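Why should sequence recovery work at all? Because a backbone constrains its sequence more than one might expect. Tight turns favour small or flexible residues, buried strands favour hydrophobic ones, and helices have their own preferences. The token representation captures these environments compactly. In the example below, the structure is given first.
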């Protein structure tokens, strides 16, 4: 009787958000039914099919908490109200960066790093980070402009005009080929090198070089031979006919 009267006098006051909280069966603290551990806590009886007392450490948890789940009451603090943006023309440089530059550039940098990791830019240097940051992130995903998600660089009007006077050089093969195409070319070159370095192929190449060196002046040798055999102008007898007549 004394405990019941004392608990009625010391019962906590009701909070303003009790009606707005989630639907729960809340039971006030009663010293005749609960231990002081339950005071000020939201609890619920948990039904399990194993012995919970075997896993309870008395040095950490009170034995009266066995079979109950506890949770704290949600906080009632309201989020701070957003302040109006400072004027662009009169605010200090630091405030300007924090309100007008960093909210756009920081997510763009984060997206650039994620894309660089996906493109494996540290293994193969064909990822243009400043192009991705300026065009794909800041231009296509700019919240101040809509309808740019499918825009291509070569279709922008001022880009077309600039390319007329400054044609773009051909892209390197590292930017054109896919990984499969590049792997096929590298493997074919490597197989060709393995064949060319064999002793039989090297011997054949050596013979071909010597043969080309020997036959380098074959045309002049043939011309010299026929000039020595042909008679001079005005002489109708050839050296061979004179030898036969003798």
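From this structural description, the recovered sequence reads:
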């Amino acid at each position: 009787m004394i405990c019941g009267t004392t608990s009625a006098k010391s019962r906590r006051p009701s909070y303003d958000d009790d009606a707005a909280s989630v639907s729960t069966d809340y039971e006030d603290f009663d010293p005749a039914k609960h231990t002081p551990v339950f005071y000020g806590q939201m609890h619920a009886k948990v039904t399990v099919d194993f012995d919970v007392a075997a896993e309870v450490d008395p040095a950490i948890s009170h034995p009266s908490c066995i079979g109950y789940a506890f949770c704290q009451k949600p906080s009632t603090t309201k989020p701070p109200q957003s302040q109006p943006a400072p004027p662009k023309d009169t605010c200090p440089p630091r405030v300007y960066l924090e309100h007008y530059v960093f909210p756009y550039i920081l997510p763009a940098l984060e997206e650039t790093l994620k894309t660089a990791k996906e493109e494996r830019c540290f293994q193969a240097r064909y990822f243009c980070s400043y192009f991705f940051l300026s065009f794909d992130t800041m231009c296509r995903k700019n919240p101040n402009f809509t309808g740019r998600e499918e825009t291509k660089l070569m279709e922008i009007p001022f880009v077309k005009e600039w390319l007329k006077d400054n044609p773009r050089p051909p892209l390197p093969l590292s930017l054109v080929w896919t990984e499969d195409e590049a792997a096929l070319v590298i493997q074919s070159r490597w197989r060709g090198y393995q064949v060319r370095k064999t002793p039989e192929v090297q011997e054949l190449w050596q013979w071909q070089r010597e043969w080309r060196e020997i036959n380098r002046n074959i045309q002049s040798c043939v011309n010299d031979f026929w000039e020595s055999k042909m008679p001079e102008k005005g002489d109708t007898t050839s050296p061979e006919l004179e030898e036969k007549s003798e």
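A few observations help interpret the result. Strands lie at 42-45, 68-71.
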